Inverse folding.
């Protein structure tokens, strides 16, 4: 799938969202609202450093990197440790809301898109059955992300220690390796995040929990990582803009007045609700991407089987049948 497939999935996702607009905005978005509030508040505390917990994380990370052999005078690692400490603080701060409200909101979206009727709305009991698989898969995905981070840090530590041991510790080489390490870290983390996101959707669609959805996601996403990143880009940019809007409209006004009033509180809730809607829309896009990946996977599998059956013969007819089957399945991939 290329750019055309990406645009088609986004258009279909918006259509599905509008088809179930009342359910998504009244149930799923409200489920995600506590998580959105916690995330926006964690971003505020991380930027202002008003909690002792954040400077403590930053200080310990700097000590860890210095002990590992990273150059303390390099500006890149000072910025990197600050951003990493903010991300860790935000993850810890929102962890109870992520494991409860966010997973329930995602389960409600996945269950709604599994319904065969476009206007059918799932019951809470059916949503509750998806919570346990999503929770187990989310825990395994978090361990996968931690493992990816630890692997990249270990590689960078080995490289810097190797250079320092051979006396190649010039500032130019450190800057070059820092840039290369940043690119490598971004690529690995983006791929890990895409696999984890797809595994979470797969867990809800097939009611599987644990590490098995992650392995299946690795198979389904082969050759489609760029498409997944392009699909995640619009929603993530919109959520980043909403976070900036919260900082500008609520946090800036609070710092100017020095107290919280009813106007700031209501505006903050509206912004958090808007953030929840984009969380629901992002989950919808992920579900449609999973259906597309699964359709293409089965079409490719059936095409290979057809070629094996008709081996030694002219395979143009089998190839055309495979193409017709692919078009039929892609056409039938809708909200249900």
């Amino acid at each position: 799938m290329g750019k055309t497939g990406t645009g088609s999935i986004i258009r279909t996702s918006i259509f599905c969202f509008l088809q179930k607009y009342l359910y998504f905005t009244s149930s799923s978005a409200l489920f995600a609202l506590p998580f959105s509030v916690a995330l926006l508040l964690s971003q505020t505390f991380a930027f202002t450093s008003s909690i002792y917990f954040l400077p403590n994380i930053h200080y310990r990370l700097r000590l860890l990197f210095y002990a590992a052999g990273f150059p303390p005078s390099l500006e890149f690692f000072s910025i990197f440790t600050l951003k990493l400490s903010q991300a860790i603080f935000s993850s810890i701060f929102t962890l109870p809301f992520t494991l409860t409200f966010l997973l329930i909101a995602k389960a409600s979206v996945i269950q709604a898109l599994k319904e065969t009727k476009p206007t059918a709305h799932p019951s809470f009991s059916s949503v509750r059955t998806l919570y346990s698989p999503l929770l187990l898969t989310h825990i395994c995905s978090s361990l996968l992300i931690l493992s990816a981070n630890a692997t990249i840090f270990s590689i960078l530590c080995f490289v810097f220690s190797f250079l320092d041991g051979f006396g190649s510790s010039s500032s130019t080489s450190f800057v070059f390796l820092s840039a290369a390490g940043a690119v490598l870290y971004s690529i690995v983390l983006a791929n890990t995040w895409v696999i984890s996101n797809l595994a979470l959707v797969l867990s809800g669609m097939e009611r599987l929990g644990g590490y098995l959805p992650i392995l299946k996601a690795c198979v389904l996403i082969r050759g489609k990582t760029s498409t997944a990143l392009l699909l995640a880009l619009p929603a993530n940019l919109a959520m980043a803009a909403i976070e900036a809007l919260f900082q500008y409209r609520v946090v800036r006004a609070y710092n100017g007045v020095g107290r919280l009033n009813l106007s700031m509180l209501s505006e903050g809730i509206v912004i958090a609700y808007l953030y929840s809607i984009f969380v629901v829309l992002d989950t919808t896009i992920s579900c449609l991407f999973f259906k597309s990946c699964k359709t293409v996977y089965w079409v490719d599998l059936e095409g290979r089987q057809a070629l094996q059956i008709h081996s030694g013969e002219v395979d143009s007819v089998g190839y055309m049948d495979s193409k017709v089957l692919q078009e039929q399945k892609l056409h039938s991939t809708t909200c249900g």
Notes: DSSP finds eleven helices and no strands in the chain. The first helix runs from residue 3 to 19.
